[in-house]
Predict the structure.
Amino acid sequence: MTEKYIETLRMMTQAWQCDHLGHVNVSFYMGWLGDAAFAMGAMHGWPREQMLAEQAGVAAVKAEVDYQAELRGGDMVRMESTVESIAERKIVFRHRLIRVGDEKLAMTARLTGVCIDLVKRRSRPFPQNFVARIVETFGIKPVAPKEAAA
C-alpha cells in the first residue's frame, strides 16, 4: 500500500533564516515540523482552539531528521506529512520537505509525539474523534495499548 502524504505547509524561505554558511539554519526546520504537526491536528478535527479549551496538546518526544539538499533564502518549499502510527497517547508523524520547482527532496523527518494534559503535565489520551479522522485519512489501524508500550 502506498503511503498517503498530505500538504501541511507551503512557504518561501527567507534570507534572514540563513546562517553564515549561506543555507537555511536547522533551527527553522524544527519549527516547520512543529507547524506541520499542528496543521495536521487542525486538519483532522483538533484545532488549536480546541486543544486550549481541553488544556491538551502534543509534545514531541523524539525526532529523527535527515537533511538531503540545501535550501537558501527565496526557495519555495512545501511540507508533506503522513501518520505512520497512532495509539491512545502516542502518534508518529513522517514529514518530507520538497523544494517547489525542481521537486528536490530537501529533508525527511520522523517525529514521535505524545498527547499531554497541559495542567498536569502528564500524558493523556488523544480525543477519539481525532484518532478516528487520522485512521480514516491515512488508512491505518490504531495501535493497541500493549503494542504502543513496546
